[in-house]
Specification:
7 helices, flat
Amino acid sequence: MRTKVTNFDELSSEIARLKVQKKEQEAFLLNQYELLKHKVEAPARIANMIFNRVPGVSTIKGLVSGIGQVTNKNNKADWLTKTLQLGLPLVLNRTLLKNAGWLKKGLVLLGSETVASNVNQSKVTAVIDKLASIIKPKKKKKKKAEVEAVVEATPIPPNHPPMITAEESVQDNAYGIPKDSEAY
């Protein structure tokens, strides 16, 4: 709803009306969010209520969560580790463990999750860098070594004054002219 504002009083009343409308809309959206959150959590609440009534479920739940805490020592895993932890069991179930029993599947999948948690992005990049360094050809460093050998081989004449740096040559000189120059 647009209203035509002609003076300052109408403008201030329109601003006040819009602020009230904003507060009402925020309250409505917050209420809708809480209702949606309550609806989404309903299946989990029902499952927890059923599991709490069955004897022995809490023991199994504690055992499974304990195994999960042992295998996931670092919860700050990178994307590669998380992908392997999810993807490796699926791939193993579809390929190698297709005809295996549930006990073998469980043990191998638990072991694969542990192995996947030890693999992280930095370890994989280190292995790839090592392979790349083996495959890449060695760069020629002969030219650099030859230049250094020539520089070291040039003899300094016996009556030559000692070598000084540029900073030393203009030290104690107000004009910045080097001591060895002709203008000094």
